[in-house]
Amino acid sequence: MKFVVTAEHPRPPVRYEKVGRLRPGENRSCEVILDGHGVIRNIQASDLLLVLNGLLVPDLELSESGNRIIISGRYVVLVKQVRVMIRDWPKKKAALFIREER
Length: 102
Description:
Blueprint lengths: L13 E11 L4 E6 L3 E7 H8 L7 E3 L5 E4 L3 E4 H9 L6 E8 L1
Antiparallel strand pairs: 1-2, 1-7, 2-3, 4-5, 5-6, 6-7
């Protein structure tokens, strides 16, 4: 007997393209870096921790599934990579993606 799981999402397919990095900066802040453009903004590590714990922070939100942090409504970072980055501060970085609906 086969086991079949059908996903029913009313949303169109989404494509994520890597466009930069989120890396540890000075004074416990994270630099949002776009490839070819450099640093576009800084985010305090404490703000990332607040979002990871479900609190509201301006320009940062947790996705519905809870596995992505959305920055400025446009850029996406994986929660797992952010947790590793904060845990192993300042050795690790996180990939920065842009979300494109098809």
